[in-house]
Design a protein that fits this description.
single chain, 217 residues, alpha+beta, four-stranded antiparallel sheet
Amino acid sequence: MKWLFFILLAANLALALWGQFGKKESPNLLARQQIHPEKIRIAQPQTIQPQPPPIPQSAPPPVKKVCYKWGTFSGDALEKARAALKTLVPSGTVREQILRKPDKLGYWAYIPPKRTKQEALDAIGTLDDLGIRDHFLIQDSGKWQYAISLGIFRTEEAARKYASSIRSRGVKSATSGRRDSGEIVFSIDDLEETQAVRIEALHGKFPGSEMKEVDCD
């Protein structure tokens, strides 16, 4: 039974040693497991910046449109008014109201249409050199394009005499003939204010005409 005695003795010694050293080690173990206070940082709450409220964009004010009636025109004045309008307003904003008068036929002195615009300009240069200032180049497409009007007359005789006087000054192509002198009224639509100012200034160059602002409807 000696071996049992030694086993119990060894067990008691082991238990005693554990109790002696385990109690000394435990405080160090706990100390090692403590959180270092100097390493503690208090998290600061994040500040959320408020977003500025969206500012609605106001719609631009509507552009004011202006419309006119301008007339009446016939003969050379009609051609000049057409040419002037083409330089001032966009295409498609001008309409022509034709006031046909079949019994009102006029006569004119003219130079027949040239083949090209340059030929017509050369002919106008010749007229200027001769001191003949009353002329107008017809540029609208059609059978009279690049013809040069020398004047409108009430009677055939007056037109024929004037054409003869032009021929006597060296312009052999001058002639005369009958011409429809029906009257035209221009409708000028949807102009912006800057364009309207130019149109009103143009009116002053045609003292025999009447221009009035009308509703664009």
